[in-house]
Amino acid sequence: MNKNILIIPGDGIGQEVTTWGKQALETIAKKYDHTFNFDEAIMGHTAIEETGNPLPDETLAKAKTSDAILFGAIGHAKYDNDPSAKVRPEQGLLKIRKELGLYANLRPILLFDELLEASSLKPEILRGTDILFFRELTGDVYFGEKIRSEDNSFASDLMNYHRYEVERIARKAYEAARTRSKKLCSVDKANVLETSRLWRDVVQEIAREYPDVETEHMFIDNAAMQLVKNPKKFDVVLTANLFGDILTDEASQIAGSMGMLASASIGDGTGFFEPIHGSAHDIAGQNKANPLASILSAALMLDIAFGLQEEAKAVTQAVADTLKAGWRTGDIASAETPTTRILGTNEMGAKVLE
Amino acid sequence: MNKNILIIPGDGIGQEVTTWGKQALETIAKKYDHTFNFDEAIMGHTAIEETGNPLPDETLAKAKTSDAILFGAIGHAKYDNDPSAKVRPEQGLLKIRKELGLYANLRPILLFDELLEASSLKPEILRGTDILFFRELTGDVYFGEKIRSEDNSFASDLMNYHRYEVERIARKAYEAARTRSKKLCSVDKANVLETSRLWRDVVQEIAREYPDVETEHMFIDNAAMQLVKNPKKFDVVLTANLFGDILTDEASQIAGSMGMLASASIGDGTGFFEPIHGSAHDIAGQNKANPLASILSAALMLDIAFGLQEEAKAVTQAVADTLKAGWRTGDIASAETPTTRILGTNEMGAKVLE
Ligand SMILES: CC(C)[C@H](C(=O)O)[C@@H](O)C(=O)O
Ligand SMILES: CC(C)[C@H](C(=O)O)[C@@H](O)C(=O)O
C-alpha cells in the first residue's frame, strides 16, 4: 500500500508525542511492506507565530491532498487569558475540521486491564467498560454566529443544527452499533433545548432504519453522572459537538488518563487522527508527556483510513505489551508503580516500537 | 421567628420526598419555638394535568408572597419522548426561576464520611472533598431565543450573557469564597465561545475586587475530567447555567448519590430550595426514593433564607447521625450494607426526625 500522510504536530506536547505516532507508522510500513510518504505542516500557536494565521493556506492545501493526517495538539495559555484576542490557535483546528468536512469524531474509550488501578474510579466499576463515542464535529454552538456588542456588555453564540447534520452522524453511529453490541445511547438536553428536540426527532427517525439496535435517549446532565456511576452501561454514545467535548474528556478517566485516548475525525475529506489531550504547555519540552495516545491515533489511522486491521492490531498489541511489562509514564503510574518503571516520553515511545 | 413557607412537591418522587423536608421543618419549629406556616401549590406535569399550565398563576402569586419555597422535582417521560410537545413540565421550573429572579443556584457537595464507600470513586480520591458550586440560573442558552424552522429542517437556541448577569453571580461566589478557603475556579469554554470570553472577562474584572481570593479559569471539558480525577482540588466553582447543570450532576457521584444533594436558588425574590435529583418516575410511588436531599434542602432554607444556622446544623447533624447509625436507602447502600439496614423513603425520613 502506498499512502501520503501529513504530520501536523501543532503546539506544546503535540510536538513531542507526534514523533512517536509517526515512528509507529514507519515501523509498520517497514514490517508489513507498505510505503508511507510523510510530509509536515504547521497549525495553531506555532503557525500564528510564523505566519500570523492559525491555519495557513499551505497547510490546508496539503491536508486536502493527503490520504490521512496525524495531528498532535493545539492551544496556548497566552490566548486563554486574553478574552479579547482576535486570532487564536483553536481557530485553526475548528477551520480544518470544517474545511475537510470532518463531521464525525470517533472516540473509543479503550480500557487496558493493566491500567485499572491508575483510574480514580474503582476497578470493579471499570472492568468490562468499552465505549465508542460519536461526537458531531462541524456544527452546534461551535460554528454558529458569534456576537459581541461594541460596548462589551453582551455576547452570544448561536447553538444550531440542521436535520441533515444530525442524520449523517446518526447513521455512522448506528452502523457502528450494528458491529458491536447493538446498543446506542443518544445524549441531548431535549427538556430545555430546541436544538436537542430536533436532534432527538432525527435520531428517533434514523433508529427506525436500524430496528436491530436498541436506542436509549439520555439528558446530558444524567449522562455526565451515569458515566461516573456505571460506565459499563454505555456502548455506542452519540452526541452533539459541545456535549461530546465534555463527555469524552470526562470519560478519559475511565481509561486512566487523557494520555491514553486517541480519536478519529472522519466525514467528507481526509481522515484526521489525534490524541484527545491538549497541548499541556505546563509539561511541554520536559519529556514527560504520554506518547501512547499519539501511537494509538496512528493505529486508528491504519484501521479506519487505510483498512489495515492487522497492522492496527499490531500497534495496539505493542501498547498493551508495554503496559503488561510494567512500563508507565507519570500520568498512568499508580501508587504501586516502582519508580524504575516510570519512563519519559521518548523512552516510552521506544519501548513500544521494540 | 414567624415564616410563611410554600411547599411545591411537583412531579414523581418529588411528592414523596418533599413530605419529609416539610416534616423536618415542622420538627425544628416545634423544638426551637418558631412558627412556620405552610401552604402548598402545584407545578410541572401535575399542574399541566390539572390546569394545562406548568406554572399556574396561583402558584406564582403564592411563590412571590411567601418567605421561602421548598420544591420537590419536575418532569415526566411522556414529554421527553415527544420532541414536538409544546407544553412541558420544565417550562414551569424555568419560568419560576426567571420570575423570581433566582440567578444564583448554590449546590454544596457535602460528603458524609459514612458514604465514602457508596461512591464509584475511590475513597482516597474523595476524602476531604468539599465543593460549593455557584451555577448561574436565569441566563445562558436556557433562556435565549429558540427557533424551529417550519419544515423542521433546522433548530437553534441562542446562548447569551449580559455583563451584569455575570457580575452579580460572580460577586456572590467571591463573597462565599472569602468565608471558605479563598479559592475560586471559574469554568467556561473561552477557547471556543464568545459568551465564555465575555464571562472570563467579567470574572477577571470582579476578581480584582477580591485580591485575597485565588482565581483559576478552567475549560469545561477539563473541569469535567478533573472533577473525577481529583475532586479535592476544587473549592468554590463558578459557572454558567448549562455547564453548571452538567458539572453538578456529575459531582453528585462524589457525594455517593444524587439522592444526597440539596440546592438553594437565590437572587432578587423568594429563595427556592430543592434536591438536585429529578422526578425519577421509574421509582415513584414505591417508597424507594431517598428523602435526605429534601431534608438537606430544608436545612439550606433554615440557613440561607432565615439565617437560622443552629437549626440548620441540627438538621444536618440528624442526617449524619442516621447515616452513622448505619441506616441507608437503596441508592446509598454499598455491597457491605446489611439488608436489614436498607430503608424505604418513609422509614428513612422517620429515622432522621427521631
Ligand atoms: C481545542 C478545542 C477547540 C477542542 C474542542 O473543544 O473541540 C478540544 O477540546 C477537543 O476536544 O478537540
Ligand atoms: C429539569 C431541568 C430543566 C433542570 C435544569 O436543567 O436546570 C434540572 O436538570 C436541574 O438541574 O435543576
Automatic annotation (TrEMBL), chains A, B:
<keyword id="KW-0464">Manganese</keyword>
<keyword id="KW-0560">Oxidoreductase</keyword>
<comment type="pathway">
    <text>Amino-acid biosynthesis; L-leucine biosynthesis; L-leucine from 3-methyl-2-oxobutanoate: step 3/4.</text>
</comment>
<keyword id="KW-0028">Amino-acid biosynthesis</keyword>
<feature type="binding site">
    <location>
        <position position="221"/>
    </location>
    <ligand>
        <name>Mg(2+)</name>
    </ligand>
</feature>
<feature type="binding site">
    <location>
        <position position="97"/>
    </location>
    <ligand>
        <name>substrate</name>
    </ligand>
</feature>
<dbReference type="InterPro" id="IPR019818">
    <property type="entry name" value="IsoCit/isopropylmalate_DH_CS"/>
</dbReference>
<feature type="binding site">
    <location>
        <position position="135"/>
    </location>
    <ligand>
        <name>substrate</name>
    </ligand>
</feature>
<keyword id="KW-0432">Leucine biosynthesis</keyword>
<comment type="similarity">
    <text>Belongs to the isocitrate and isopropylmalate dehydrogenases family. LeuB type 1 subfamily.</text>
</comment>
<protein>
    <recommendedName>
        <fullName>3-isopropylmalate dehydrogenase</fullName>
        <ecNumber>1.1.1.85</ecNumber>
    </recommendedName>
</protein>
<feature type="binding site">
    <location>
        <position position="107"/>
    </location>
    <ligand>
        <name>substrate</name>
    </ligand>
</feature>
<feature type="binding site">
    <location>
        <position position="249"/>
    </location>
    <ligand>
        <name>Mg(2+)</name>
    </ligand>
</feature>
<feature type="site" description="Important for catalysis">
    <location>
        <position position="189"/>
    </location>
</feature>
<keyword id="KW-0479">Metal-binding</keyword>
<dbReference type="Pfam" id="PF00180">
    <property type="entry name" value="Iso_dh"/>
</dbReference>
<keyword id="KW-0963">Cytoplasm</keyword>
<feature type="binding site">
    <location>
        <position position="245"/>
    </location>
    <ligand>
        <name>Mg(2+)</name>
    </ligand>
</feature>
<keyword id="KW-0460">Magnesium</keyword>
<dbReference type="InterPro" id="IPR024084">
    <property type="entry name" value="IsoPropMal-DH-like_dom"/>
</dbReference>
<dbReference type="InterPro" id="IPR004429">
    <property type="entry name" value="Isopropylmalate_DH"/>
</dbReference>
<keyword id="KW-0520">NAD</keyword>
<feature type="domain" description="Isopropylmalate dehydrogenase-like">
    <location>
        <begin position="4"/>
        <end position="352"/>
    </location>
</feature>
<feature type="site" description="Important for catalysis">
    <location>
        <position position="142"/>
    </location>
</feature>
<feature type="binding site">
    <location>
        <position position="221"/>
    </location>
    <ligand>
        <name>substrate</name>
    </ligand>
</feature>
<keyword id="KW-0100">Branched-chain amino acid biosynthesis</keyword>
<comment type="subunit">
    <text>Homodimer.</text>
</comment>
<dbReference type="GO" id="GO:0003862">
    <property type="term" value="F:3-isopropylmalate dehydrogenase activity"/>
</dbReference>
<comment type="function">
    <text>Catalyzes the oxidation of 3-carboxy-2-hydroxy-4-methylpentanoate (3-isopropylmalate) to 3-carboxy-4-methyl-2-oxopentanoate. The product decarboxylates to 4-methyl-2 oxopentanoate.</text>
</comment>
